């Protein structure tokens, strides 16, 4: 609303004149918007000599021109017309935060007309002081002032409570409607961003749409202009008992409390202000972390990333936990709803991002943790082909042992759900659709870790596809799909942090405050590495027996049990899946200890070595496997993040010895040292330089498919990945290429062979008698000893040959 107050002897007449001008301006503006909407004009389709963001031409074209005209005209009149002090009429007092600006001087009446604008108030409020008998010049100037301020200011006035931000231009979204945004000033970097928050990309997944693919046709539509100035509620989470310190950081610097709802399928668009370049902006679509159980796009403010590096960033919500990944192993509910939400968001980007100035031919998907696993699964999913052009995986990939959920007994899980919510087993899915959403998340989360599943076509006994089943998102185990070359061969940037699981391994519960002994090191290897792999092997045995009983078809390298499948990771198929097998756990533990702890007894060194070893096995080795697949077909870049934040308030839970735990790269990649909401944190100059480097590398890759492209002024050399020469970019205070990394070879090539030797299989005996026979002689057999010697020789020779130490 434009408030114009005229004080004079003829106050009524002056108000009527200005009111008529204001009314005419608003009517013209509304008519223009209506006309543009009717004829289907939108932002990216208007190209008349230069690309413009459409929907509100006055905000981009008329405002600067109107303001310039107003100031120039004011200056000319002030110079040409004789200045004289105002008549002795007492001026009206101004508010403390108001400043008076000379506007025009009446030559005959020797009276100065002044405009008072409140410094901290919206630009649509104007007070005209002391006008007297109007002449033609003063009348025209008053009308011009009213029209310019109301038309221009009305378009850019902020709708954010408590902020001085202005409106971003209105954008028309095909088949949905118009949406307004907010212009966000970023004083620390000298740029502004336009943000459009809370745009629906699918109908609310409630009622019969719970446990169903997102409904996007027709897309959600609205009348009028949707206010994109606030986030919509987050998807209902099932948060961990102890939130990760990095996520606590982002939750702390999020300005407002996060509301939750089952109606949560909304996305947010962040883009640079101003004119769209001829080639349009690169687009980056973010999948947030949270173990598929919690998390929200609300934490991830991309204003700095978008404004500084001229990219469009889209952050999207997706359903989580049981609401996002429930499956009953039938065509009715085959699972992966959260991944289908992500695919629907990518479809929305392909249909509509050009309206915001983005290029549909240059879309990068990127994510961290569960978001990076999502990126990896989209790479191998046939449903996501041609929806993106590049991929960035941060601390996660589709080959992680936890990437795909495979419960030991899926039927037992469904029986437990039926009992918990008083449902009949044969109508379980329909019954659960009527359970309160928050109660369902709380009750269902205690039964199983819900997550992605292999939802390949369920087959009947005669091998025909089950009737009514939708196209699968994940038709086979990720490893099998990559082995067969069934993945999107787009340029890929992938990496991990050197101390990924430092918080989880040593958090006061597992000890390690002053370091660990060698006995503790061996116990951690036994519990967290070898026995975990043995549990995976036994789980595969059980699923194979279940498949044989249900006549389900066995996939080449991953077993499908009515929609729940082995992830195809773990031991890589090197172990025989015989029913009567026993693993020589002690031998495998000794082999790992020999590699990582034989040269030291220092407690702090042993603690550091264990954390780095765990990161190498879980994230580094699998990441290098993915890089090996993709690099055969397209450019691939691998990094290892090692920078330790200097800001003590950023991650207060991080011990001094932790340099780069899981998530430590997120504040620098997202430019958090420049966020207005994070200004209370003691960021150092080194933190800001690291953030500058990381933002440039990530957006460079999105723009050029080359993170070290020279056009952005990045002065680093980052070579493409070569499987025979597995080097990585070490992201530290001074980024540099590493020496060839031997850790991927150890975990991907030699460790499975050690397991194969340590596994004793006797098909004609029970497991107990097999174990007795194997260890009756008091230790491992000759084959085991030979394998041990080979590992020792390989480790020693690699070090002698100049390869770096595993702890280098």
UniProtKB/TrEMBL annotation:
Q: Which residues form the Carboxylesterase type B domain?
A: 168-747
Checking Gene3D superfamilies in the record gives: alpha/beta hydrolase
Annotated region Disordered: the residues are: 544-566
**Membrane-spanning residues:** none
Q: Which domain of life is it from?
A: Eukaryota
Q: Which InterPro entries match?
A: AB_hydrolase_fold (IPR029058), CarbesteraseB (IPR002018), Carboxylesterase_B_CS (IPR019819), Neuroligin/BSAL (IPR051093)
Q: Locations of Low complexity compositional bias?
A: 544-555
Question: Which Pfam family is one of those matched by this entry?
Answer: COesterase
UniProt keywords, alphabetically? Glycoprotein, Signal
| Family stated for the protein in its record | Belongs to the type-B carboxylesterase/lipase family.
The record's PANTHER family line, in alphabetical order, gives: NEUROLIGIN
> Which protein is depicted?
Carboxylesterase type B domain-containing protein
């Amino acid at each position: 609303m434009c408030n114009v107050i005229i004080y004079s002897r003829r106050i009524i007449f002056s108000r009527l004149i200005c009111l008529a001008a204001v009314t005419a301006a608003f009517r013209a503006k509304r008519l223009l918007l209506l006309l543009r909407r009717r004829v289907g004009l939108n932002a990216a389709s208007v190209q008349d000599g230069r690309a413009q963001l459409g929907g509100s031409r006055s905000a981009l074209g008329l405002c600067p021109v109107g303001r310039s005209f107003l100031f120039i005209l004011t200056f000319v009149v002030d110079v040409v017309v004789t200045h004289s002090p105002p008549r002795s009429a007492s001026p009206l007092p101004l508010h403390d935060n108001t400043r008076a600006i000379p506007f025009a001087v009446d030559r005959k009446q020797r009276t100065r007309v002044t405009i008072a604008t409140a410094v901290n108030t919206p630009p649509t409020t104007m007070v005209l002081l002391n006008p007297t008998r109007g002449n033609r010049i003063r009348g025209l100037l008053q009308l011009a002032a009213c029209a310019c301020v109301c038309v221009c200011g009305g378009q850019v006035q902020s709708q954010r409570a408590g902020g001085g931000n202005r409106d971003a231009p209105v954008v028309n979204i095909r088949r949905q409607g118009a949406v307004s945004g907010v212009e966000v000033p970023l004083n620390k970097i000298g740029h502004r961003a336009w943000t459009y928050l809370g745009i629906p990309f699918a109908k609310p997944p409630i009622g019969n749409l719970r446990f169903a693919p997102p409904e996007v046709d027709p897309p959600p539509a609205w009348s009028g202009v949707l206010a994109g100035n606030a986030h919509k509620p987050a998807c209902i989470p099932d948060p961990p008992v102890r939130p990760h310190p990095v996520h606590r950081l982002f939750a702390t610097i999020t300005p407002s409390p996060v509301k939750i709802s089952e109606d949560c399928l909304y996305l947010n668009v962040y883009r640079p202000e101003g004119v769209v370049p001829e080639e349009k902006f690169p687009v980056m679509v973010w999948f947030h972390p949270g173990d598929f159980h919690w998390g929200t796009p609300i934490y991830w403010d991309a204003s700095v990333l978008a404004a500084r590096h001229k990219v469009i960033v889209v952050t999207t919500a997706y359903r989580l936990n049981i609401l996002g990944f429930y499956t009953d192993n039938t065509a009715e509910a085959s699972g992966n709803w959260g991944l289908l939400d992500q695919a629907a968001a990518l479809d929305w980007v392909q249909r509509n991002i050009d309206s915001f100035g983005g290029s549909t031919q240059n879309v990068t998907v990127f994510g961290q943790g569960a978001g990076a696993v999502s990126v990896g699964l989209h790479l191998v999913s046939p449903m996501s082909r041609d929806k993106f052009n590049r991929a960035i995986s941060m601390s996660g990939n589709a080959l992680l042992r936890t990437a795909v959920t495979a419960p030991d007994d899926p039927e037992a899980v469904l029986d437990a759900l039926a009992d918990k919510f008083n449902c009949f087993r044969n109508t379980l899915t329909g019954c659960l659709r009527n359970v309160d959403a928050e109660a369902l998340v709380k009750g269902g989360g205690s039964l199983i870790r819900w997550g992605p599943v292999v939802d390949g076509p369920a087959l009947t006994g005669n091998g025909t596809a089950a009737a009514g089943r939708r196209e699968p998102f994940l038709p086979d185990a990720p490893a099998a799909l990559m082995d067969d070359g069934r993945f999107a061969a787009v340029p890929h940037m992938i990496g991990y942090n050197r101390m990924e699981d430092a918080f989880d391994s040593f958090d006061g519960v597992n000890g390690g405050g002053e370091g660990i002994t060698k006995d503790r090191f061996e116990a951690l290897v036994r519990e967290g590495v070898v026995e975990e792999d043995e549990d995976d092997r036994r789980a595969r045995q059980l699923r194979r027996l279940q498949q044989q009983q249900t006549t389900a078809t066995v996939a080449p390298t991953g077993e499908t049990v009515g929609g729940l499948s082995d992830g195809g990771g773990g031991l890589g198929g090197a172990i025989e899946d015989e029913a009567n097998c026993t693993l020589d756990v002690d031998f495998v533990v000794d082999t790992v200890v020999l590699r990582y702890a034989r040269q030291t007894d220092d407690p702090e060194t042993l603690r550091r070595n264990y954390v780095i070893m765990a990161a190498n096995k879980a994230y580094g080795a699998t990441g290098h496997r993915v890089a090996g697949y993709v690099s055969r077909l397209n450019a691939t870049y691998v990094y290892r993040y090692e920078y330790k934040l200097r800001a003590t308030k950023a991650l207060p839970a991080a011990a001094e010895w932790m340099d780069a735990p899981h998530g430590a790269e997120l504040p620098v990649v997202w430019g958090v040292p420049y966020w207005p909401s994070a200004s209370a944190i003691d960021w150092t100059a080194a933190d800001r330089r690291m953030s500058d480097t990381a933002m440039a590398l990530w957006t460079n890759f999105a723009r050029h498919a080359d993170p070290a492209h020279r056009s952005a002024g990045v002065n680093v050399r980052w070579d493409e990945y070569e499987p025979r020469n597995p080097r990585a970019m070490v992201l530290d205070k001074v980024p540099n290429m590493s020496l060839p990394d031997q850790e991927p070879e150890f975990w991907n090539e030699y460790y499975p062979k050690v397991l194969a030797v340590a596994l004793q299989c006797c098909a004609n005996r029970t497991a107990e008698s097999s174990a007795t026979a194997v260890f009756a002689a008091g230790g491992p057999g000759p084959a085991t000893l030979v394998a041990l010697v080979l590992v020792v020789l390989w480790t020693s020779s690699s070090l002698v040959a100049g390869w770096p130490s595993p702890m280098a």
